[in-house]
Amino acid sequence: MSISLLGAAEIREIAERLDLHPAKSLGQNFVVDANTCQKIVRLAVISHGDHVVEIGPGLGSLTLALLQATDKVTAIEIDERLASQLPHTAADHGVTSGALSVINEDAMKVFDIPGNPTKLVANLPYNVSVPVLLTVLERFPSITSGVVMVQTEVAERLAAKPGSKTYGVPSAKAAWWCDVLLSDSVSRTVFWPVPNVDSSLVKFIRHQPLGDEALRRRTFDLIDRAFGQRRKMLRAIYSDIYGGSGEAERALLSVGIDPTIRGESLSVQRFAAIAKELDRR
Length: 281
Ligand code: SAM
Known about the structure:
This protein has 281 residues and is of the alpha/beta class.
């Protein structure tokens, strides 16, 4: 039996049956358009051996589209009613048992996903999209690529390059793990309820690690400090760490970085160069 997708009428019917009133606090805007789900799956380039992790499957519209492309999906859903309904919806739509595993948990609290996941594909809950994405990249190194739908403003920040207005903590930290590409925008009309923000798709492809875990932690600390005081020059921002701005200036110059610039013009590789310099001390 082939797998059929969810339509708008059926989504509303399931929601009514569950007496579900979409919660803003959980970012519950469900995609009611099957074409959008198929487009996301195409962009993610899923092949049959892939084990896809979906965070926030909701009523299952994207989940079913994923299960048309692979027979291994792990869906992590915080809402108990949605998590318990999902296997029934999947079975009703022709999904064979064993193809879908559902974890009823806050994605931030999941440390183990059995069976080496290879891709992340999700319409992320908007209020936690950046921490969820960064956490998944950190905890599950077997995930090598993926596509996430997020608020357009967040998508632009994730994909921003040094020197641009939108470059910030999410851009620099995401770039530690992967190359991030801003893809298509998604119309508000494909959601129920219709959100009051625009959405876009972001594709990411993991690259070689820039260093070990200790270096990553130090680099992320430097990034947080730099963007915590955006208007200050680097030598002032890092004077605490180096015990004075003169010493910070010397250290920055030793790795070829102008101490009078601001964090917003530094790539993650440059932040990592400062972290390495600190390690040598
Ligand atoms: N994937 C579905 C779709 O496209 O129709 C639903 C996407 S909706 C934007 C976000 C989903 O994430 C909701 O089902 C919500 O309950 C769930 N969610 C919210 N916070 C979560 C968390 N911390 N961990 C796991 N799921 C979460």
